[in-house]
Specification:
Layout lengths: L1 E4 L5 H13 L5 E2 L9 H12 L3 E11 L5 E11 L5 E5 L7
Parallel strand pairs: 1-2, 1-3
Antiparallel strand pairs: 3-4, 4-5
Length: 98
């Protein structure tokens, strides 16, 4: 798996997801730089294909409201298959991936 994000300031969140994967004996690489270049997700998908990585976890910060209408920020991930057009999105700890 490759753990990445768009935008700045999500390195700690990417590392937290990677640590969680590693704790379940799942191999994962992390995007350490905030700037992934102009290619965006297409560039990441191509690089993962070349390196034999089948899944990408995209971390993003979601600003919204909780169930009581209070503004909240939480980390949301999108897990994408590099080889198939399969993806799932939600809060990391609510996904049944592990």
């Amino acid at each position: 798996m490759y753990v990445a994000s768009f935008g700045k300031g999500l390195l700690a969140e990417r590392l937290a997801v990677a640590r969680d994967l590693w704790s379940h004996d799942i191999s994962a690489d992390v995007q350490y730089e905030d700037n992934i270049g102009r290619g965006g997700i297409d560039y990441i998908m191509q690089e993962c294909r070349h390196q034999g990585i089948s899944w990408i976890v995209l971390v993003r910060h979601h600003r919204g409201q909780d169930h009581q209408g209070t503004p909240s920020g939480r980390d949301v991930v999108k897990v994408k298959s590099v080889l198939k057009k399969v993806e799932i999105e939600g809060e990391w700890h609510s996904l049944s991936l592990l």
